[in-house]
Amino acid sequence: MRYILFATCFFSLFYASAQNKPQLYNQDELPQTLLSNPGAAISFDKHIGVPLLSGFSFQVGSSGVSVYDIFRDDIPINAAINEALLDLSSTDYFNMNVQLELLSFGWRSSSSDIYYSGGVYHEIDAFSYFPKDLATLAYNGNADYIDVPFEFSELAFTAESLSVYHFGINKKVNNSWQLGARAKVYMSVANVNSINNRGDFTTRTTPNGPNFYTHTLRNVSLVANTSGVESFYDDEIDTGVTELVSNAFLSKNYGFGLDIGLTHFINEQWSLSASIIDLGFINHREDVRNFTAAGNYETNGIELTFPALIEGDEFTDYWQNIEDEFEDSINLSDSLSNDYTSWRPVKFNTSLQYAFGEDRSGECNCKSGGGRKYINNVGLHINSIKRPRGLQTAITAYYDRKWNSGLLTRVTYTYDKRSATNLGFLVSTKINKFNLYLAADNLVQSTNIAKARGASLRLGMQLVFENK
Amino acid sequence: MKQLSVRLCLRYVLLLPLCFTSCVDDVDFDRLDQVILAPRFDIGLLFFSVNYTSLSNEEIVNSQIILRDTTQLNFLDDEVTQENLVEIAISYRATNTFNHSITNKAAFLNQNGDVQYEITFPVSRSSDGTPVVTEFTEVVETQDLENIRNSIQLANEVIISAGTLPQSGDLNLQSKAIYSLEFTDL
């Protein structure tokens, strides 16, 4: 319990737009840009990542509270939790996303001018809305919430660990369009999800009823699906490390996905781009366990009938009757093994970019639009990700500057409904063929990260080649 | 010149992490130990109705009719209750039209049927047959709570003082309990 609470609070540390990577989007010198838009304009002809180090991305966030809000040392922690509980709403959420590229490579076909790229990365993604009603019930109880329904529909969470094999193509079809697509095979290591829950628990006053209250479970329908995690809660099942590693590369719970993207060069300096990422699903067939609860139940308490008065019985097992009635009314199951399908959180990106400040060093930007090369870009990038209750959207304004000697920087400002002060930064350098990049955001809060509601860090190193 | 540029690049990249070096100030993670969950659950308990017609088979002993019924309260033996219950406030509301002295007695019993704790209160009589409401609340805490924790059954007695069988009246009794829990070892 302690660790669950701590983990919850730790999640509350940061806020970040889930899986939004505004520092890497529209970066024509970085191969990772192809993972957020397979149709991105790129300026390189071959790349190979340093295995395990070519791309690491870590994001964690909470939309409602920060670590400071909970652990601030100027008020008692229980008062802080109470305050947070009041402030948070059921639309607030916690999320974490980690991606680690295991393998990354790409090359341009000299005959077709198609850029082929592929690789393998491992991803852990966890997302949960804040179930305010259930948290309130657990933290405060129902005594101060008579006649107030506690909604189960607020319970919605997903968590998954998977490996992704991908291979994509990117081609500039003419001076106006650059298109790309990426096929993905997902290998699920573990998956837990519970969405589309409904029903409520209410304690109602009953002035004309037989007792003070009626407690009702109304239209209850709760479902949780898991795969690959049975060994964590069933002592009789032992999943070894070898099996887990094996699942990471070749799992029986697999699925397919597609990324598509494009860049449209309006003219030499203006360009539009758009992409859809992770349009895909995973079928879970192995090591599957489903938990369900459904039905309606109502009780006023225990009604004594004084059986000696009625039938001459000495004893009525009221408690057993209540238990039986509950079991008859609410159908509980924790031993189902029904296959299920989970959908990947699909992402949408779109951007408008303006390039300016002609580079007079003599090189042309032959592969990504016009004939001239510019050292500055400004752009607007909109990222949305589909979560169980709809799209979460962030808008980012950015400014790129290509300095001498292979140094590239980007400054970003990201706005969404919870954060208005999210400044980010990217620096990427290329020394000969060796590229190293590092990016982060929420820099304003970096002087006291406890006050930040989100943070992300991305770094990687690879060899990037340009045919000149 | 090229060597200078490479050195410059390396310097930028190596210095950059310093920009992201963050501090964590004004927070105290040790205070996690001080977190107390203190939910209060308000739950309906026993209820019943007694009508004078249902007393026709009852014996009158020492000018008293005693109705008694018992129920298991298995949740009192639950680990959560045993470890985290810090207070119970039990409330009764009796609506009576009997023109007799009535006493309600609730006895918490252990597995052997021994009384561990008892709540007794008088129910106001109705002199003219109109419903009279009696409300009574007992808060159980500290040592008395230990007696509740030792219990597993609740026996309820309705004691009606009457020399003869009542010819009219009924009694409706409602009860609820607010269970205050405290979780400290999270």
Shape of chain B: elongated
* CATH topology label of chain B: Jelly Rolls
Total tally of structural domains of chain A: 1
Which CATH class of chain A?
Mainly Beta
Average of pLDDT of chain B: 86
CATH architecture label of chain A: Beta Barrel
Please, could you describe this protein's structure?
The complex is a heterodimer of chains A (468) and B (186). Chain A is elongated. In chain A, 15% of the residues lie in helices and 49% in strands. Chain A has a 21-stranded antiparallel sheet that branches. In chain A, strand 3 and strand 4 form a beta hairpin. By secondary structure, chain A is mostly beta strands. Chain A is built from nine helices and 22 strands. Chain A has one domain: Porin. By secondary structure, chain B is α+β, with helices and mostly antiparallel strands. Chain B has one domain: Jelly Rolls. Chain B has a four-stranded antiparallel sheet. In chain B, strands 2-7-4-5 form a four-stranded antiparallel sheet. In chain B, strand 4 and strand 5 form a beta hairpin. Chain B is elongated.
